[in-house]
From TrEMBL:
GO molecular function, one term: catalytic activity
Listed Pfam families: Aminotran_4
Organism: Penicillium daleae
Matching InterPro entries: Aminotrans_IV, Aminotransferase-like, BCAT-like_C, BCAT-like_N
Superkingdom per UniProt: Eukaryota
Protein name (database record): Aminodeoxychorismate lyase
Length: 266
């Protein structure tokens, strides 16, 4: 990862989440009290996980003022976000950014309309989706650092990986997997990937697995949700393990869970 001064005003820790007015209806009808993180009636997707993620990043960079700002209660945190929503009837992509001085900002942009069921783990819905994402593998290696294990504005390596994969727009339904120097899949450039794999030493049916954080990727919010609800387990996935045409899942805090297919040759 390109070097970045963690005390520069331009360097921030970030988290992107979805505002969706239909989310509370989906969580109330399709999950029980323990299968979605509180507050389950919030239109902000995985709200508490996003706050936790930012706090963990602030702790990593030893930003005391940012920690103080982020440790406000969830009711106050949600009210802070409410002030940025211009139309409560539409879904929005929100980007929360916090600097070393504890100054927070919120960027709000329109986002694609999706079936809100896709915000739940796949085992809670049919998984029928009209769009299948193409999942490429980066041709170069990325060295893990605090800028990969935490989401920040230092995104040069991810941007470069997307360019190498020919992904030119955030609107494209394509993703590229980032690989560490040991040949292990770290994560996607904007998503967490999940692959169907047998568990080592276990003769039972294959299960969904996601790369462990020791491979260098980010502790994403939808990843935490998937692990907490038992949709997947952690297991090393190497570039050599991937099979051209194999199906996978992808997830992030704005689009929820998306079907994908690995593309190794083109």
């Amino acid at each position: 990862m390109a070097s970045a001064s963690t005390t520069a005003p331009s360097f921030q820790i970030i988290s992107s989440l979805r505002y969706d007015p239909d989310l509370p209806k989906v969580t109330s009808r399709n999950v029980n009290d323990s299968s979605y993180p509180a507050p389950a009636d919030s239109p902000y997707y995985l709200l508490s996980y996003h706050r936790d993620r930012l706090i963990n990043a602030a702790r990593h960079f030893e930003w005391d003022k940012a920690i103080d700002f982020l440790q406000q209660d969830l009711v106050s945190f949600e009210k802070l976000l409410d002030g940025s929503i211009s139309d409560v009837q539409k879904p929005w992509r929100m980007r929360i950014a916090v600097d070393c001085n504890g100054k927070g900002s919120i960027e709000v942009n329109p986002t694609v309309a999706i079936d809100p069921l896709n915000l739940l783990i796949p085992s809670l819905h049919s998984g029928i989706q009209p769009t299948i994402w193409k999942v490429f593998v980066d041709s170069q290696l990325t060295t893990p650092s605090g800028f990969t294990t935490h989401k920040t504005t230092a995104r040069d390596d991810y941007t470069a990986a997307r360019v190498r994969a020919g992904i030119t727009s955030p609107a494209e339904t394509s993703e590229v997997l980032v690989v560490n120097p040991d040949g292990e899949i770290m994560e996607g450039s904007i998503t967490t990937p999940y692959f169907r794999r047998p568990i080592a030493g276990d003769a039972t049916e294959p299960v969904w697995v996601t790369p462990p954080l020791t491979s260098g990727g980010n502790a994403g919010t939808s990843r935490r949700y998937a692990l907490t609800q038992g949709f997947c387990v952690e297991q090393l996935v190497t570039k050599a393990d991937l099979v051209d045409g194999e199906e996978c899942w992808l997830s992030n805090g704005v689009r929820g869970f998306m079907r994908g297919v690995v593309v190794l040759s083109r």
